[in-house]
Each structure stands twice: as structure tokens, then as C-alpha cells.
Specification:
single chain; two-stranded antiparallel ribbon; 9 helices; 16% strand; globular
Length: 302
């Protein structure tokens, strides 16, 4: 569906972006994966009262267990570069920004460090996942009503000022991973108003042999079920998370410069640069300054 407002940027990604030659698992394995996912859903529902009662590290451990279990149920291996830095980050507010590819993005981020999120209102209606992200303190954005944007950004700034980590996807829509969108600036103004740092995180989906894959992407007019089925078919899916250094408050003169710094950090972590032209493309470059740190690996069943 075409966006109704200029601040809802479209993505040209669709079925034509899907890579080919992906290894897949047999039908029985797919069924077992969905069964494991359903079991994790039931576990997550049972854990909701605990999320409301527990605080601090105990709550974080429970959230990581649930979201990590979702990844494992679909056979996704999580590889985190710089995860210790994020886990050890002080308990203060920060805007955590990521590139946006899949419904798995928010699952992966919370498996590394539980946090609140700014998400489109439609996610609240998703079965189970919508309930979980709502109980996690998600701030929902109504993208169809431009008039609600200022109040939502005020709510975001208040959450940041109050000490919350909040995950935002400033591309404002999902891309296939091979192409990407420019970072919109509204959420960065909330970080400035809240006086908090920005923490960029880069996400990449690849196969066990190192090839990038676009199969996990949630793109085009497809339904969530279609995307779930495609992910369940993949063999050897690896989700890489690159935790970039913080951008300190005051580093940028305004929200546009701050968005540009965060976008550049994500591009550098992925070994790409963004070409600021109308025909967007990615160019692979060597980026020695952001060599990946030793990774923490979460194994998944084969």
C-alpha cells in the first residue's frame, strides 16, 4: 500500500529482491519449527504476569529467554558483535536505532538487551507478538495520522528522559537488506530533547556459508504468515548484530546531522556506504575502523 504522507517513505523492495539458491529444510523440520514456536508463544503468554512483577536483571533474563527462544525455534543462530558493551551499558536512557529488514529485528534486539520500542500501531494487532511488545512498554505510532506525530515524539522523549532504552527503526519501513532507506529524523529530535545518547545497531541476515540472504525480509504486500513460512524453510540462517559505539549528546548540531551520523555508523558496521543519490545502491568497501569484535554466538538446533 502506498504511504499517505511524505514522512512514511516507501520501499521499492518486493518479491524481485529475494535471493535464490537458499538451502531449505524438509517439511517435517518446518512442522517441528512451528511447533517449537507455538510452544514458545505459550511460554511467553505464561510469562506475561512475570513481566509485570519482575524488575531489573531478573526481568531482563526472562525477556531474553523468551525472545532467544523464538529465534531458536525457527533455527536462527544469533551472532552478536559488541554485545557485551550493550549488556554492560549503564541503566540510563538511550535511543537505539537499527536498520529495518524483518519482524525478526525486534526479536533479536530484545534477545541481546531487553528494551522498549517505537513501533507502528499495526503491530499491536499481531497475534501474540503484538501482546508481548505491548507489555514490554512499546510506544505505538499511528502512521496514518500525521497530527499524532508530535505527541508521539513527546512521549518518546519522555521515556528516554525517564531512563528507558527505546529501539527505533528510522527507515520507517522494511527493506530487503541489500538495499536500504535513509534515516528519518523525527526520533532523533526526541533523543536531543531527552538529552540522551544514540546507540546505532546494524543487522545482517546471512546463511551458514556467509552468503547474505533476503529471505527473512518482511517486504512488499506479503502477510506476516508468508514471511514466517519463508523463514521456517531456511537452513542455516544466521542473524548478525553489530553493536556500534554510542553517539554522545551534543555530538551533532541538529537532528539531521544526528540521523546522518547514526546512518553512517550502521553502514560502516555492515561494510557498506550509502550513496546520497536518487538511485540508491550499496557499495562494498573496506572499513578497518569498525572491524567486528569477538562475537557471542547463540547456537540453534539444526
Amino acid at each position: 500500500m502506498s504511504p499517505r504522507h511524505p514522512w512514511m517513505p516507501p520501499s521499492p523492495c518486493g518479491d524481485h529482491c529475494l535471493t535464490t539458491g537458499e538451502p531449505t529444510v524438509h517439511f517435517v523440520r518446518r512442522v517441528l519449527r512451528f511447533a517449537a514456536a507455538i510452544l514458545m508463544v505459550l511460554t511467553a503468554l505464561a510469562a506475561v504476569p512475570g513481566l509485570l512483577v519482575l524488575r531489573g536483571r531478573a526481568r531482563d533474563r526472562l525477556v531474553r529467554l523468551v525472545f532467544g527462544g523464538v529465534l531458536r525455534s525457527f533455527g536462527v543462530r544469533l551472532v552478536v558483535h559488541g554485545g557485551a558493551e550493550l549488556a554492560a551499558a549503564p541503566a540510563r536512557g538511550a535511543l537505539v536505532v537499527t536498520n529495518h529488514i524483518s519482524w525478526l529485528d525486534i526479536v533479536a534486539v530484545n534477545a541481546v538487551r531487553p528494551m522498549r520500542a517505537l513501533a507502528k500501531r499495526e503491530i499491536a494487532s499481531w497475534p501474540v507478538l503484538g501482546l508481548l511488545v505491548a507489555k514490554a512498554g512499546t510506544i505505538f505510532l499511528d502512521r496514518e495520522r500525521l497530527s499524532t506525530l508530535p505527541s508521539t515524539m513527546d512521549q518518546l522523549a519522555g521515556a528516554l528522559r525517564g531512563g528507558s532504552l527505546v529501539n527505533v527503526t528510522p527507515e520507517a519501513t522494511t527493506w530487503c537488506g541489500r538495499a536500504s532507506g535513509r534515516f528519518t529524523t523525527a526520533a532523533f529530535q526526541a533523543a536531543i530533547d531527552g538529552g540522551v545518547p544514540v546507540r546505532p545497531i546494524a543487522l545482517r541476515y546471512r546463511l551458514a556459508d556467509g552468503r547474505e540472504t533476503t529471505w527473512p525480509a518482511f517486504i512488499g504486500p506479503e502477510s506476516l504468515i508468508d514471511s514466517l513460512r519463508r523463514v521456517a524453510r531456511l537452513r542455516g540462517l544466521v542473524l548478525e548484530v553489530f553493536v556500534c559505539p554510542e553517539i554522545a549528546p551534543g555530538r551533532a548540531v541538529d537532528r539531521r546531522e544526528l540521523a546522518g551520523l547514526a546512518e553512517a555508523a550502521v553502514s560502516a558496521a555492515l561494510g557498506t556506504v550509502q550513496i546520497p543519490a536518487q538511485r540508491r545502491r550499496k557499495v562494498t568497501v573496506q572499513v578497518d575502523a569498525v572491524a567486528p569484535r569477538p562475537a557471542r554466538v547463540t547456537p540453534a538446533p539444526r
